[in-house]
Amino acid sequence: MSVIGKIVVPNVSARNFAKINAALQTVKSNRNYFTYTQELSQPLDRKPEFVTAKEAFEKCLKSGQTVYAQGAAATPVPLLNAMTEVGKAGSLRDIKVVHMHTEKEAPYVAPECKDIFRSVSLFMAANVRKSVAEGRSDAIPIFLQDIPKLFHRKIIQPDIAVIQVSPPDQHGYCSLGTSVDCVRSALVNSKIIIAQVNVNMPRTFGDAIIHVSHVDYAVEDNTPLPEHGSKGAASPEEMEIGRLIGDNLVEDGATLQMGIGSIPDAVLSALKNHKDLGIHSEMFSVGVIDLVKRGCVTNNKKKFHKGRIVGSFLVGNKELYDFVDNNPFIEMLEIDYVNNTHIVSLQPTMTAINSCIEVDLTGQVCADSIGTRMFSGFGGQVDFIRGAAESVDGRGKPIIALVSTTKRNESKIVPTLKVGAGVVTTRAHVQYVVTEQGIANLFGKTLRQRAYELIKIAHPDHREALEKAAFERLKCMPAP
Fold it and tell me: How far apart are CA 235 and CA 240, in angstroms?
């Protein structure tokens, strides 16, 4: 009887013993690190191979693979550019590139790459809208809180994950920095990890840490992070929306969720006299910094993560990146926790502020498409709108905010949504709708009452036409 490792093998000759032992050693040497652990914070006895971006993909990129790419401000632009070059040079085919919102150009969606790469957006950005519209790319409608399930349930199985991290600290830990969201779920289910190590990536806390030993190929590249934010100063209409929300709907001690853009920034600028505000939001903007410095944002009323801002990903400017860098006041957590409807409902006076493309007279909200043309995605709107509505303290406020007209003076409050428009937030989900013309509370209202309230906050130029359209649709006049 012989013992090989922990295996007892009866009646094995010396020759066969050697063969079996050699086979077991080969299996052991071929095992990857996920054989031992999937936990990214666990140090492993291995080191990444430092290579150029092009070399990394030449070593592992093959036809038919699935590549996951980190997004938002952490979009590893140099790596994705190198991936595109290698794919084209090698005449590769049928590679899926899965991602949330990404920044800068996306060369892999160019027409000449249509047989090489196919983008799959979990939330679309401007850089892939044209390719989706032209059929060269895909989009998956999904709530942000559900995205990690795609990886954990093996619906999406990445062969390669492409990320951007801060340099390792003295213990070997890097940080995912500005984008945690669904990244961890993708990484623990990926066969190979390629990481761009960038001194410009902020070191954030929470679920952001990854030990450098989990990286297969490391690429040193200190390209500045993409900067993105509101396009110029907020308009007078947006400032009025911010004032209306700040003065009437945001209470002292409220927990806030809001995205990026002029309206969220206008709301933040209207909160300078508020006290003990908290932030629990999938993302937040540079406007939060001033409120922190003024002592308006303290997070003191929270029962969970008391005294800390909770986020999941960021897109902003250098001021925002410097603010979150090495700052224990900020916790960057996974999106299936931050956006979990039940977790949201537990926040004190949860106030969720989201924007949209158009609202019909019954309260249906389109936020992901312009007619049939896909524009963005579901994002976290329903996650937070429903979480605020279900707030356990009964003080939550779900808010949809929009300027009443487009730049062409077309009403954004419409008789019916455009043909093919997607209903992201249903009329049963919607409570407060705010334009620069006022605030409509639709909760508990009949269809004709809803039409009445929404017409009141539509632009005066369009109210008469909307009233006529409401009568045609409902066969009765809108009434309070």
Answer: 9
